[in-house]
Specification:
5-stranded mixed β-sheet, Rossmann fold, 2 domains, globular, alpha/beta, 12 strands, about 375 residues, about 15% strand, 7-stranded mixed β-sheet
Length: about 375
């Protein structure tokens, strides 16, 4: 696949200037490098791009579309991508972009907005877009058509369609397998609950149930369902793919969307928006393991409390790196088979390293993971001309 060159020209160091992230107290020694606001009122485009750190190479990060995203969330997601790509050992830094709009808008309007966004960032060669909440392979094809720089492309134009394959869910399953050694949870017979039965959640459920897990609860934006006898994953996926909701599943107990937190299980999987578990929710969770499928799904205070309760919480940027690893393999011209093999190798090794360090040091897994990531990022930064 022909791709534009993403090499960086040598830069003359300029006096530091405050950016939007400084105003919110978000900047630190790692980043962000750039914060770009895009506004095209004639077509209703409002967007933010945060390029956090590019010491290892041009940044890969998803393009999220939602009506309620803002700078703070965009920066936190970009930092999570910096950590994720560093832990995965990719030749890419971290970034994130958000388009502030309803992803359920008419398709022609959505295409116009995404193409306009792509045009607006066309000269920002340090950023490679990928699919995220509210965007998909088709959206990445529009971006590639405009600027030739995206990953997660449709198969028909040479991409590895990561949502179709379910690479993030595949990686989560590898993470859960490794975690068996560090917890009292065995996958065979483990009860799982998926909060956010979408592109990530449905595949996580599918792969985990192939390992012997039992899906006992699931939710989407409209509601939740619980069945201690087990939910047929294939049936629920079919309902969702036909345009239905989890509440359309014919068996089990129908619940309010947020009641998914209260369903007892062994493994609880947040696979939707950030901060779905805050410190006030921790006592509602009845699980032994939290497998973070979404980015930043648990607040820092809640993670501390989970650790104190003895719940093994596997950090997002370690466990859910399957998507970005696949994107990096695609960008380098690799194949689907090689992507799956690399995802398994990297996630297996990194989850084991993080959990082993956590056990040895007594630190929370996230602290162990952040230390690993920051060491790699700072090493990469030390090799750059300007630092």
């Amino acid at each position: 696949m022909n791709r534009p060159r993403t090499g960086r020209a040598k830069r003359v160091k300029k006096p530091e200037q405050p950016n939007a992230a400084d105003v919110f107290g978000l900047a630190d020694d790692l980043g962000p490098e750039k914060v770009i606001h895009v506004h095209r009122p004639a077509i209703g485009l409002r967007a933010i791009l945060v390029i956090d750190n590019v010491a290892a190479g041009p940044a890969i990060g998803g393009t999220r579309m939602a009506p309620d995203v803002g700078l703070d969330e965009c920066f936190r997601l970009a930092r999570a991508m910096t950590f994720k790509n560093a832990v995965a050992g990719l030749r890419h830094g971290g970034a994130k972009s958000v388009i502030i709009a309803d992803p359920a808008m008419p398709p022609n309007q959505k295409e116009e907005i995404i193409r306009a966004f792509a045009q607006a960032i066309g000269e920002v060669t340090d950023y490679i877009a990928g699919p995220d909440m509210g965007t998909n392979e088709t959206a990445m094809a529009w971006i590639a058509d405009e600027i030739g720089r995206s990953v997660g492309l449709p198969r028909e134009i040479g991409g590895i369609p990561l949502d179709e394959i379910g690479v993030t869910g595949f990686g989560l399953t590898i993470a859960a397998e490794v975690a068996e050694e560090f917890s009292n949870v065995k996958l065979d017979g483990a009860r799982i609950v998926v909060q956010g039965f979408g592109a990530v959640g449905k595949h996580a459920a599918r792969f985990l149930c192939e390992k012997g897990c039992i899906l006992v609860g699931a939710s989407d934006s409209r509601g939740a369902i619980a069945d201690p006898q087990g939910i047929e994953v294939a049936d629920l996926i079919r309902i969702k793919e036909e345009g239905g909701q989890v509440a359309d599943y014919p068996r089990g107990k129908k619940l309010d969307r947020d009641a998914v937190i209260d369903i007892p299980c062994d493994i609880w999987i947040p696979a939707a928006r950030p901060d779905v578990i805050n410190v006030g929710d921790v006592d509602r969770l009845d699980c032994k393991m939290l497998l973070q499928g979404a980015n930043i799904p648990v607040t820092p205070e809640a993670e501390v409390k989970l650790f104190e309760r003895g719940v093994l919480s596997i950090p997002d940027f370690v466990a859910n790196a399957g998507g970005v690893i696949c994107g990096a393999v695609e960008y380098a011209g690799g194949t689907q088979a090689s992507a799956l093999a690399i995802i398994e190798e990297k996630i297996r090794d990194n989850v084991h390293a993080v959990l082993a360090e956590s056990r040895a040091s007594g630190k929370r897994p996230r602290i162990a993971a952040q230390n690993l990531a920051e060491d790699r990022i700072k090493r990469a930064m030390s090799l750059r001309r300007w630092r």
